[in-house]
Every structure is written in structure tokens, then in C-alpha cells.
Fold this protein.
Amino acid sequence: MGSRIETNTGRRNAMTSIRARPWRIASLAQCFVLLLVFSATGQTATAEATTGKVTAGRAVTCRADQVELRGTWGQARFRVEVADDAQERALGLMNRDQMAQSAGMLFVYPRPQFAIAFWMKNTRIPLDIIYLDASGTVKRIAEQAIPYDETALPGGVGIQYVLEINGGLARSIGIAPGTQLRHPAIGADAAWPC
């Protein structure tokens, strides 16, 4: 069966509507291309609502399997695995040969840490390690961490969340100190709440 769309004058067959308004085909095609571009780069269109409000007839909420970042540069979204216990945090992204450009891992600690540092022991892919405070605000980034390097990469005092993404992405997207991250794990102190 053909799909149907809602119009101001009632329901109408999609094919009839498309024939009556050929400019819609171009608009839909442009939207699809933009969606593919943003999905491939991990970026999101700033017009896309992800605040938990109702937009275009659908509710959008924060999801446990993704993080969103925003700054003066725009917004980005990554599909993430969450490491929220000691065993998962210890393993991290070790022994993996690759990771999708739009993927990452979010490390969640129960409270801000006095001192925290990551290293790249048994990690095969270069990473950007993004350290965030209790509000989900970026405080420091260890860019292009070298695979297998056991040098400690300190995040500083008061870090509660750490996001690892493919090396070089933070700089190319514009992620920097002051960028805000949104995820359901960030509680009442969130700078960008769900």
C-alpha cells in the first residue's frame, strides 16, 4: 500500500500530493542528503530538536545509547556504549581494531573524581579523550592519544564523565573546553539537561 500524508484539507494519497507539488520532491531529497551528511560526520542539524519537547508531532528525548554535544561551533551526536561500573571502565575500548566515526564510549563515575587519568594500554585505535565535570561541561581534551602508549593522560580535578571518540574528531568538529554534553546519566547539575 502507498503511504499517506496529512494535509490541511484532509488525507490525500502521497503520489497525488507529490504530483501536485513537485517542489516537495526536491525539498525531501535535500533533507535526505543533509540527514546522510550529518549522520556520516556525527553532527546534527541545529534545527533538529533533541530537548525532550514535542517537535513536528513527535516527542524527542535523551537516550542512554547516545550523547549530544553543543558549543559555539554547533552540535554533534555520537552513539555510545556506557561504561558505568569499575570493570567496564577498566576495559574501555581496549583490544578493538576500529570504531565507527559516529561512535564512542562514555565513562560514568558515581561522583566527581579527585584526580583522574587515562592511558592507551592495549588500545589499538587513536582516540580523543574528552574530560567533563559533574555538569557535563568539557574541561580538557587529550587529543590523538597514541595507541598502546602507557603515558598517563590526566583529566584534572572534579572530572565525573569521560567521552572517548576517534582521534582527531574533537578538533575537526570544534569540541573544546566549555562544550556541553547531554546524556541521561548527568543528573540535576547538568549544564544541558535532558
